[in-house]
Amino acid sequence: MSGIAKTPQPPYYAVIFTSERTSGDHGYGKMADKMVELAATQPGFLGIESSDRDQDGLGITVSYWESLEAVRNWKEHSMHKVAQEKGKTVWYQRFGLRVCKVERDNFFEM
Questions:
Q1: Could you tell me which residue ranges the ABM domain spans (predicted)?
Q2: Which fold has domain 23-102?
Q3: Model-level pTM?
């Protein structure tokens, strides 16, 4: 999935994950792809947007969900929990997670 996610009319929820990686891949790329594929099959998943890491190594991924229940279910998914643990022990120097309710959106397209 790439580009701007096609989300429904608000309200819906955005999970914003910002991270700074450790050096080396250590299986990160493969697991990241697998998590996007898995998330896309989960009930309540609406889409995902991700930026490439900038020169400072900051990565930003935003996933969209129809409800807080869907967000919680994804957080607790067994394979996602494996990736979360590996992130804490191997892949990330630091990360932040924000869950937001989207009440309004606006898009422009040529």
A1: 12-100
A2: Alpha-Beta Plaits (3.30.70)
A3: 0.92
